[in-house]
Amino acid sequence: MNRLCDVEPRVMDDEMLKLAVGEQGLRDEAGQLAKQEGILFKDVLSLQLDFQNILRIDSLWQFENLRKLQLDNNIIEKIEGLENLTHLVWLDLSFNNIEAIEGLDTLVNLEDLSLFNNRISKINSLDALVKLQVLSLGNNQIDNMMNIIYLRRFKDLRTLSLSGNPVAEAEDYRTLICAYLPDLVYLDFQRIDDHMKELAEMKHRCSVDELKHQESLTRAQLQDEQARWEGLEGHKAAFVEHLNGPFLFDSMYAEDVEGSQLSHLPGVGELVQTYKDKFVIICLNIFEFGLKQQEKRKAELDTFMGCVQEAVQEKQEQGKHKMAKFEEKHLLSLSSLRDESELTNFEIKMAEHSEDITELVNVLMTLEMQLVEQLEETINMFERNIIDLVGLFVESVQSLMAQCRDLENHHHEKLLEIAISTREKILKCELEEDLPDAVRLLFVDKDTIVNAVGASHDIHLLKIDNREDELVTRVNSWCAHLVDKIRKDEIMRNRRRVKEINQYVDHVKSELDSLEYSDLLD
Amino acid sequence: MEVLKEKVEEEEEAERAERAEKMMRPLEVQKEDTTRTQEMLRDLERKLSEIEVSIPEKPSTFTKDAIDTSKLPLSYQSNTPKEEHLLQVADNFSRQYSHLCPDRVPLFLYPVNECKVPKFVSTTIRPTLMPYPELYNWDTCAQFVSDFLSAVPLPDPLKPPSYLYSPTVVLKYQEGNCFDFSTLLCSMLLGAGYDAYCVYGYGSQDLCHMDLTREVCPLTVKPKEMVKEEEKAPPKKYAVKPPRDLTSRFEWEQEIKRQEAVKAEEERRLKQGERLAEQESAKTDPLHGLRVHSWVLVLSGKREVPESFFIDPFTARSYSTQDDHFLGIESLWNHKNYWINMQDCWNCCKDLVFDLGDPVRWEYLLLETDKPLLSLTEEEDDGTNDDDDAENLGKEDEDKSFDMPCSWVEQIEISPEAFETRCPNGKKVMQYKRARLEKWAPHLDNSGLVRRLTTYEDLECTKTLEIKEWFQNREDMLELKHINKVTGLNIDYFKPGHPQALRAHSYTSMQPEMDRVMEFYETARVDGLIKREETPRTMTEHYQGRPDLLSYRHVNFGPRIKKLALNSAESNPRPVVKITERFFRNPVKPADEDVAERVFLILDERIQLRYHCREDHLTASKCEFLWRTEGDSKGNKIIMTPDMCLSFEVEPMEHTKKLLYQYEAMMKLKNEEKLARHQAWESELEVLEILKLREEQEEAHVLTISIYDTKRNEKSKEYREAMERVMHEEHLWQAEAQLDYLAPFLAQLPPGEKLTRWQAVRLKDECLSDFKQRLIDKANLIQARFEKETQELQQQQQWYQENQVTLTPEDEDLYLSYCSQAMFRIRVLEQRLNRHKELAPLKYRALEEKLYKDPRLVELLQVFV
């Protein structure tokens, strides 16, 4: 800001970075080694790029493990190109020409952020920086005190500097900040003393309390939402969401124009009400049954997982034991091989040891094969059981749904009866109640009214069928997925183990080979 | 044999003569007696009974003469009418009993006490609850009695004694026979709430002579290791089937059978040998089943005793009622009643039923309202045996309204000193089978020794196996010293609080760099060391709870390099050859970066690392560094080459291949190596220090005194005395302050009546007038003295004026000095008089006010105020 912009901006390119890395690298022997090998950008932990007249941040994507980055005293205008630097802890962007805080959303590990002497007018876009401890925003153009409230979300914030901003000229600037940010320890490079804190608390208690109240309200709301969401998730996992109330029934009538029209007929209101009550009871039955079944399935799954874990653990222990034994032997024979000078003896020992290695491989592989067989059997058993469980669940739900359908049929018959009798009444002009015109229109002839009642019935049945189908398909697909995943996991485990064994054996063999070579060379 | 008998007889007669002459030395005689072999003794006794010479003396150190009966309370020296009545009843009972059961021995009902007064045995029991919490349970109680008293055999092993002393006297002289023991123990147990009874019966020889040489010492018996039955979890639904076992089951079974047979054979042989040896030592007792003994029976029911059992008061052991040592019961009694056993004891006590409410099995002396045990079958028994009872002993009628009088014995008291000293003279020795146990009172031995158990290899106790010594109050917190004489291994156990947090120290010699194991209280140590084992060439340390998660360090030493200079051992530490360190898993780090074991091969300049194993892996990463200090072919110093680091990685990673990474790791390890070497050196130093300290402590063996030990702790004693003095002074002062000015006047009034108003007024007036009189008297007294002084002075002056001329200078001096003294006295008197005049009205008013406020008068005088 205070620097003239007529200096020539430089481009941040690989060359510049390489130079900087090379200059700031290690010294002495380690430095020599580093140079000899070449430094990879992703191994760099800290980088200093000050007074380089950089205009645009660029080419930093390779520095994945960077912890500390200094870009102060440049002419940067926009924060960008830092997305990949997720391990960054310290970022210095002071003395630049930045106007807005942005591009920091991925830097979740950032603890120290300096934006001193820029052109920032608003504090925002810092939500991702949950670990922020030090924030330096002095010499900027922040003029709204409400920006302070935004900083309340940083629970670890201890140091803040805001001097040199328009807000800092306000009379009660210090007390206000102390009141709103009670955990702050240093403000504008000065320690906040207790006296100041007391004063601030006294002065701004009212507004702070109000703020706190609001915050707590929002938090409670959020928590409620969370709880509700979690409950729903639980129900979904049991495939019976929205069955613990009249949701299904309401949805049946939601798209049913005729049904709602027909409810105006005399006697239909009560009919619908009793129908609804019965329907809801069945729904609740399904819901509870679903939850219970879900628990059962979960218990089944847990037992299965526990058993598999145990079996794997046992075999692993055996394998480790064998491995340890072999390791001892291996070390001994290696040292004896090293000491052996005579070629024939060497050959014999070599052969012996190779045999040992083969034996180890055999033992380990046998163990693994045993395990695979055992697990295969167990998995099959589990699959059978879980499919049975799911089948039982589906059957019960279907029978309950059939009850729903029966209810609907029953209701339909009754409704039809009432409709026909009403029509007769209308024909005879005996109807006392006034009916809306739309409803009256239905009674122009018998077919219309029968059709209307039928349509309503069809819609209801469709809804029930849909719900049932959804439940059944979902539970079946869950079951299939589960078994599939278990099998896949098992295969993966097996592959990993085999790979591990092979890798180890290769290593041991290569050790032997190297001995052989060195021997030959000697 | 004949000759021997005669000889014995002669000896015995001679001895008796000697005894008659020298009644002064019964102690010595008794000592001789006891040293004689058992047979001889028995022979003697039989002879004695044949000769029918009344034996005047009791083989007891405290004879009647030794007891000062005059100082005993009256209840000891005479009988109350009730007791007389009881004695009559008992006499009647015993006569009837002897008439009805002529074949049974007379009852033990009313032996004489130390004052030669016959006392009923039940009244000799004085139930007392001791103020020591340690004496609340039967086992500790019995242990105390057996420790506190020294046992004296019965004068006649076939008869109960003719006397029974009170427990207080027994406690005082710390000596007694089995009846004294059981009476005391029974008193204490009854006081503690047990349902206890003294038993008069027959015991085995070992029991009567307190011979434990055939018993295994309870301290040597190792507590049986509770074999934890591993709860076999029910096979889970999805538990995998075990791989098929292809070994032959038959062969396995045969093998097991064969091994078992061999084992059984061996065991049998061993046992047989032992039994033979034992039988040899245990010769059959000709008086088996006739030896009188007394012990304590505790019945189930009270104090949550699940099953009735016997306690032998001599040894404080408990036995089941079926035990072989107890051969029969004549009678038993507690402080309330007396029962005679009517059951046959042909099978020792095994068939006895301790249902004291059953009158067929147990004949009682007094008809009690609450029979201790009422069995369900009692009604039947009563029905069938009603007439039997009536004709047996028609005593119910006269006894119906009679119950046991109170005990004539004074309250049993044990002083804290006596309680702490426990054994007579604070020392006791017990001989067990292949073991000897010695006990000392705390603070008796200046090394703090309280118990020593010596275990022997053979029955004759000649070859020592091991010695265990228990200590108390040691400043170095030594608790137990275990010396194995065979292997030469010493193990010292310490209580928490040793300066170096030592828990146990086992060693064969105190020289450094030898085999030893030191265990520590790891929570008390900063470095979390649990155990340090040493052999001449190695040192192994185990750790727990360290922030760096080190769990184990093993150091191998090489032979000491001889230096030319004569250095001490400390400045010439042994060279370290190899250091192995193991670490616990650090859950924060990934397994591939968490070192499990590192080995510094110092001579080879090699470092081996082994990492922790990943959770689902069999293999762990390994790494080996070896560096070369020599330069390369061109003479340049080699920093790092790829062959200096050999590694195996479970999951190869890129950055570990880099030389820089390896170089840094190696540098770090080199530093660690230095540290580890330093640690090893420090550990060695610590061992030396501990050894030195132990030696010093062994020599000094300072004892600590608990601050609660008010008698021994000088400081606390002083403090307490000072406190007491202060208290006493305060008390005196308070007594003075509470001097009642109304007391003399109140005393004139009739006592115990409420004051009337008139009386109160008169009281007040009297008090005031009395005080006035006193004030006036005092004034008069001062006035009189004043006048007397002035008069004397005037006389002197007169005399001086008359004889002024003839006076010598000395006389004149005398006169002058007298004058000045007299003037001084007069002045003082004058001042006192004036002061009195000033104060008297004030004092008078003060008293008046006080009287108005006096709580006794305030109500009555209020009207006039």
From TrEMBL, chain A:
Q: What is its main location?
A: cytoplasm
Database matches in InterPro entries: Cilia_flagella_integrity, Leu-rich_rpt, LRR_dom_sf
Keywords per UniProt: Cell projection, Cilium, Coiled coil, Cytoplasm, Cytoskeleton, Flagellum, Leucine-rich repeat, Repeat
Q: Which Pfam families match?
A: LRR_9
Places the protein is found: Cytoplasm, Cytoskeleton, Flagellum axoneme
GO cellular component, alphabetical, reads: cilium
Instruction: Please give the function described in this protein's UniProt entry.
Output: Component of the nexin-dynein regulatory complex (N-DRC) a key regulator of ciliary/flagellar motility which maintains the alignment and integrity of the distal axoneme and regulates microtubule sliding in motile axonemes.
What does the annotation say about its assembly with partners? Component of the nexin-dynein regulatory complex (N-DRC). Interacts with DRC1. Interacts with TCTE1/DRC5. Interacts with DRC7.
Q: What is this protein called?
A: Dynein regulatory complex subunit 3
What organism is the protein native to? Answer: Lipotes vexillifer
TrEMBL record, chain B:
Q: Where is the protein localized?
A: Cytoplasm, Cytoskeleton, Flagellum axoneme
Q: Where is this region: Disordered?
A: 1-37, 376-402
Record flagged with keyword Coiled coil: yes
Which residues does the UniProt record annotate as the domain CEP76/DRC7 peptidase-like?
292-363
Tell me where in this chain the Dynein regulatory complex subunit 7 C-terminal domain is found.
753-860
* The keyword Nucleotide-binding is assigned to this record: no
Q: What are the entry keywords?
A: Cell projection, Cilium, Coiled coil, Cytoplasm, Cytoskeleton, Differentiation, Flagellum, Spermatogenesis
The record's annotation in Pfam families points to: CEPT76_peptidase, DRC7_C, MORN_DRC7
Superkingdom of origin: Eukaryota
Single GO BP term: flagellated sperm motility
Biased segments, Basic and acidic residues type: 16-37, 392-402
Ranges of compositional bias, category Acidic residues = 377-391
**Where are the annotated coiled coils located?**
249-283
Which cellular component terms (GO) are annotated to the entry?
motile cilium
According to the entry, every stretch annotated as the Dynein regulatory complex subunit 7 MORN domain falls at 424-706
Give the matching InterPro entries.
Answer: CEPT76/DRC7_peptidase-like_dom (IPR056290), DRC7/lobo (IPR033551), DRC7_C (IPR056292), MORN_DRC7 (IPR056291), Papain-like_cys_pep_sf (IPR038765)
Range of residues in the leader sequence: none
- Fetch the PANTHER family from UniProt: DYNEIN REGULATORY COMPLEX SUBUNIT 7
**What family does the database annotate?**
Belongs to the DRC7 family.
Question: Subunit structure of this entry?
Answer: Component of the nexin-dynein regulatory complex (N-DRC). Interacts with TCTE1/DRC5. Interacts with DRC3 and GAS8/DRC4.
Q: What is this protein called?
A: Dynein regulatory complex subunit 7
